[in-house]
Amino acid sequence: MKYQFAICDDRAEDSRLIARLAAQWGGIANAEIELESFPSAEAFLFRYQEKKDFDVLLLDIEMAGMDGVELAKTIRRDNDAVQIIFVTGYADYIAQGYEVAALHYLMKPVKPEKFFEVLSRAVSRLARNEPFLTLELPGETLRVPLPEIRYLDVRQNYVTVHAKGDYTVKRPLAELEASLDRRFYRLGRSCIVNLTYIRRAAKQEVELTSGERLPLPRGQYEKLNRAIISQI
Fold first, then answer.
1. How far apart are CA 68 and CA 60, in angstroms?
2. Pairing between strand 198-201 and 205-208?
3. Phi (first) and psi of residue 7, to 5 degrees
4. pLDDT digit string (tens) for 73-111?
5. Which of 9, 78, 125, 145 could make a disulfide contact with 60, Cβ separation 3.0–4.6 Å?
6. Are strands 2-8 and 32-38 parallel, antiparallel or unpaired?
């Protein structure tokens, strides 16, 4: 299995040690690791804005400029999937770790056995996480968890994915549909809806829990209701 790791630590010697331990764990776990190191939160964010593809972030807290807690909060605004592991010499921030759903809080100097155990837990959690839809947007790659997607619709040659934000890509709807699961239902040629967001289905429209209304094509009412019942 292949994983994308990031280390964010302003102490170069600590960053190198963590990288060596991560490589050792990869050998033990028979996992392929691609690892990038960043000397500051700002350097990490510059890379992250282009491609949000990290699986595990090993993050120091006390750094010059933006600290690790603020970086984690920034990431969590649009990414619940990445496994954040704080690696720090300070025990004063444990409560903030809970706020950003950090997987663990490792104290420096890091003990290899504990480090390996935490990484194994991280990849185990990744395996259990909900699948996501990968979107190539201008200047960045974004992974949108499927449970966050309310619906997808087509306008001309563009598909907009409506989730925490609205993301528009130039791809066929059928191509994106292949990456979705059974909770999604195709209303017609131009719209796919997440059944779990449907509040009410009428003859001519569907109302979502967000208050949005989608037109329901002729002949879809009974089929849609059967699809909703199958989800219960």
1. 6
2. antiparallel
3. -115, 130
4. 999 888 888 999 999 887 665 655 566 778 888 888 999
5. 9
6. parallel
